[in-house]
Amino acid sequence: MNLVQFIFYIFSALLIMSSLAVILSRNPVRGVLFLVFAFIMSAGIWIILQAEFLGLVLILVYVGAVMTLFLFVVMMLNIEKLPPRTGVKKYWPYGILILLIIVGVTCYVIGPEHFALAAGPAPGEHSADYSNVNALGMVIYTKYVYAFEVAAVILLVAIVAAISLAFRGWAGLSKRQNIAKQVQTTPEERIRMVK
Amino acid sequence: MLPIADVLIVTAIVFSLSLVGIVLNRHNLIVLLMCVELMLLAVNTNFVLFAHYLNDTAGEVFVFFILAVAAAEAAIGLAILILIFRHKRTINVDDLDLLKG
Q1: What would the DSSP string read from start to end of B59-98?
Q2: Which of A14, A149, B76, B78 is the one with CA 20 to 30 A from A109?
């Protein structure tokens, strides 16, 4: 076991522990923070897999924007008044069953007799002048340019949808002018003589 | 280099843990959304893994788009969550029975 593998095992152990903490934490703020930790560990694994641009994007976009949004919403809603959880005691056997089925099927499928990729040689390292950003940019702006534009439109739609859903109307929000009321004003309303 | 089977097992564990979180959670809609994010993370890790092992950039491009769509999904989901909280004063999953049928 070389050093890279050792680092990978540390990252994945912390990833599994923090995702366990996400689903078991009673306080949702703590859950969001554990999710941030899971994202950072996963970004480490991606960087080991030589996808360094995506690893950095995961930290910048996900931890920096999406998780901050989650944290805002969790802190905005008044969670303290909610009743205590009831599901864990009732449903944990099903949870264990799901865990065992998925992990068991995965272990069976990726065994050497079914999965040729595991038996083959590992891929080599990229050369020192390889740039992941360069490689991604070369295909995103040529081969996948329509998908890229569609992703941009989806983000625009998401902005419009989120704002229009959460918007409560102008009343009481803005200091807008009422022109008609301003024109109809009289000097008595605006000037008060001080004796 | 990393053995491919180990990474696949780790992502399978993370994916199934988030599925278990969805099954167990009857308390809080936010935790449900967080579990969906965790699921997407596991799937994205698989994409990155296979992009690396098959030496094909398409997998990484796919992860890029999944990240964009997941950000949009989180924004709209949280907006709907705020609307539900304003309307019903709760985000308990068991109390959200507005849909009939």
Answers
A1: HHHHHHHHHHHHHHHHHHHHHHHHHHHHHHS---GGG---
A2: A14
User: Which residues on B lie below 8 Å from A9 (Cβ)?
Assistant: 6
Residue A169 reports pLDDT greater than 80: no
Residue-wise pLDDT for B51-62, tens only, equals 988 888 899 999
CB pair distance less than 8 Å for B27 and A74: no
Q: Is the ipTM of this complex over 0.90?
A: yes
pLDDT tens-digit profile of A18-75?
999 998 888 888 999 999 999 999 999 999 998 899 999 999 988 998 999 999 888 8
What token pair was written down for A107? Answer: 């272990």
Q: B96 CB near a chain A CB, below 8 Å?
A: no
- CB-nearest to A73 from B20, B25, B30 is B30
Least confident of A15-24, A75-84, A182-191: A75-84
Per the listing, tokens 């897999």 go with A49
Alpha-carbon gap: A68 to the closest alpha carbon of chain B (Å): 11
Residue with tokens 């699921």: B39
Contact A79 B51 (CB under 8 A): no
Q: Is B36 on the interface with A (CB under 8 A)?
A: no
Out of B9, B10, B41, closest to residue A39 by CB = B41
